[in-house]
Amino acid sequence: MTTKNDTTPITLPMLRDRIDAIDAQIQDLINERAECAQKVAEVKLAEQGDQQVVFYRPEREAQVLRRVMERNKGPLGNEEMAKIFRQVMSSCLALERPMRIAFLGPEGTFTQQAALKHFGQSIVSAPMAAIDEVFREVESGAANYGVVPVENSTEGVVNHTLDSFRGSRLKICGEVEVRIHHNLLVAPNINPDDVTHIYSHQQSLAQCRAWLDRYWPHAERVAVSSNAEGARLAAEAGRNGKAVAAIAGEIASQLYDLEVVSANIEDHPENTTRFLIIGNEKTPPSGKDKTSLLVSAKNEPGALYRLLESFERHGVDMTRLETRPSLISKWGYVFYIDFWGHCEEEACKAVIEELRERASEVKVLGSYPVAVL
Known about the structure:
Its EC number is 4.2.1.51, 5.4.99.5. The chain is an alpha/beta fold. The protein has twelve helices and 15 strands.
């Protein structure tokens, strides 16, 4: 191998020297960026005061990551490049003020994986035992933001999350999607053939139903609060010599020192879960947004049609419609609606105004950037 305009062969030591020089440049630029982030914090504190300043701006970070992907020329792929910048941004933000992020725990859940994917590694993790506890932690100010699952591509909506929005003042300020790969796990001292019980979250058990029916039809399936909790219970049972397995992700197997008996056992290879980022502040437009609403329809003929007609007439693309019991009146229902656009955009604003005229209640749960990663 030679250089383009020279016959001198390129050697391995030459390439290594070039990499070392590039690394030094990258390091200097990262620190220069970090210094700018610290100055941003100083300006915000001077202008707004410590009690009012908001360091994390979801719309700004989404715009930065989109530009990273747009200008990327390879050979690294767009998503890989964005992940690198995601962590740089996370580290710089931590210099301004480390964020405490509540998520559905314990340690090792896919929700924690979603939190790290969205916020980067430079956060203070706060695992909660239940979804409503995540909401309370953020509402109280003990956590800056929360991460909760809202829907799975094969098993549908997470009702507990939707129901938690009814009495909450929190806003949706972001979303993140995670490809879900399930593994059958056992403690190192356990013979998989002896397994009598399999622990996991009910959604995970459902996402592996066909695989379990085929390969483990005689094992009792036990639903627990999370797949990480199932992994913890399997590890604990293993220490007591009990043949118990769990279904969980790779992060849980590492955290609880479990062995993978079978990997990627989900019934659908495109299995993906969508998570919501919840916080106390509204999010300004990022240029590519979604809006989520809670709508209580009037109990009269054609009520749902009149609600949906507004979307068609104003050219607003609705992406999801879920129905839940109202819990107020017998056979009463509320609708959860997602659509493209920000509530400050004219077409979206017109739809919301018409819904308020035609429905008994309309609650804007939030407008937020569409998931970048």
